Amino acid sequence: MNTTAHAHPDWTERAAALRIDGRCVIDGQRLPSASGQTFSCLSPINGRSLGEVARGAQADVDAAVASARTAFNDGRWAGKPPAVRKRLLMRFADKILAAREELALLETLDMGKPIQYSLAVDVPSTARCIAWYAEAVDKIYGEVAPTGAHALALITREPMGVIGAIVPWNYPMIMAAWKLGPALAAGNSVVLKPSEKSPLTALRLADLAVEAGIPPGVFNVVPGYGAEAGEALALHMDVDAIGFTGSTRTGRRMLDYAGRSNLKRVYNELGGKSAFVVFDDFADVERAAKTVAGAMFFNQGESCNAPSRVLVHDSIADDFVAIVAAQAAHHQPADPLQMATEMGALVDDTQLKTVMGYIEAGQAEGARLLAGGQRVMNDSGGYYVQPTVFDGVSNGMKIAREEIFGPVMGIIRFKTEAEAVQLANNSSYGLQASVWSDNINRAHRVARALRAGTVHVNQYDEDDITVPFGGYKQSGNGRDKSLHAFDKYSELKTTWIRIDAA
To answer: How far lies 138's CA from each of 85, 142, 162, 187, in Å?
Structure first.
């Protein structure tokens, strides 16, 4: 796509002219919900409706699953040679890049993130994910087991069948791609249920998949509420696996739904309360402080891996805290449709109230509010909260124990390495962590001791599709990204062949 022709689009003007199609995508067609019901899709930027979206429920999920099962059984996708699936998925990735500006605008309007990041991060990452799995699909080999001379044992991967993907509202496109990429590449059919808070890009992705030549029924999207469409999908007797990203509370329900239905596989990628540990032997305190501020306030703090528990050695804490508090001024909320904006709106009024409740709890429990803590831009009609920094936090406080999903950072001071490790691991979550030390022995020692799926050393959130993403403990059991994601969406089959002696 040639993006130079309109290098500086007026995003506000484009938003005003936008007309959305909120209908389901089932069997390659746009369809209203079976009930005819819709819900209003509200933009967190100003609280206004972007349009009506189909309120999918049991009947729509049944239709989507039936379409996906038919597509799987007749081999229109699963039966294609890997090279063919690769070519069509690469075309799908190209379609995503070609629709870069349209998808970015939908993402920003739908969930409130700054347009500069929708353009530079979300759309390219989505396309990169689909393309990477496309490239991988014809490079996954089977195995031959080391049996005796009278047997040949083949170990092959086969697609599972119908995958239900349920994704959150904070990174709608990226989270969808993390499920779609490996699931489709492996030969499965997919029914995607996006969050009712941000359904628009998922629906558009399904259109682009059809345009790319992916057969009807292979990728279906049913928007709707979690208690209706989401529950129906997770309980469905003809769904073989659920790939879920969301809260730990809902992740528990996914496991319950599997037990109540067909014992489908459930892969949960859940919440986090990531520890960012800075030791006194790390020389560049300013870099560590600026890094944690940027990572914490990115995406309005609405990231499961946000470094919301910042553990700092007592001897450097005063300097560190002063820098972090000053950095908050560089991440103030502004209009997400302006290219210079660094921080946008929280996703809706419910999330706004949740975040403000945690800020009130932090103050009530005795933490020192150093920056932010206020709702701003009230006249806009949107949901904006200042980047907020608390010092004097203890690990027992509510703001240190629970996932906030907003721009709220708590700073905890420690004196020894052992104390830092104990504090960092004293959490029900284990998604990510970070260690900052110029002592290579300490960096390795602490990284090994931390119970987290990803441990960053002297950086935070550097990332690539080539490495797995997921956590320990109540952060879930799923691993998105990398070749390991194929394990979630394929079955291992052993074919044992007896060889008789001559």
So the answer is: 9, 11, 21, 11
Question: What count of other Cβ atoms lies within 10 Å of the Cβ of residue 254?
Answer: 25
10-residue stretch averages of pLDDT, the chain, 502 residues long: 56 95 98 98 97 98 98 98 98 98 98 98 98 96 95 97 98 98 98 98 98 98 98 98 97 98 97 98 98 98 97 98 95 97 97 98 98 97 98 97 98 98 98 98 98 98 95 94 96 96 82
Distance CA 429, CA 273 (A): 6
Coil, strand or helix: which one is 190?
Answer: strand
Q: Smallest Cα–Cα separation from 276: which of 469, 456, 467, 463?
A: 456
From first CA to last CA, the distance across the chain in angstroms is: 63
Torsion angle (degrees, nearest 10) of CA 344, 347, 350, 356: -30
What is the Cα gyration radius of the chain? 23
Three-class DSSP category at 314: helix
Catalytic positions: 269, 304
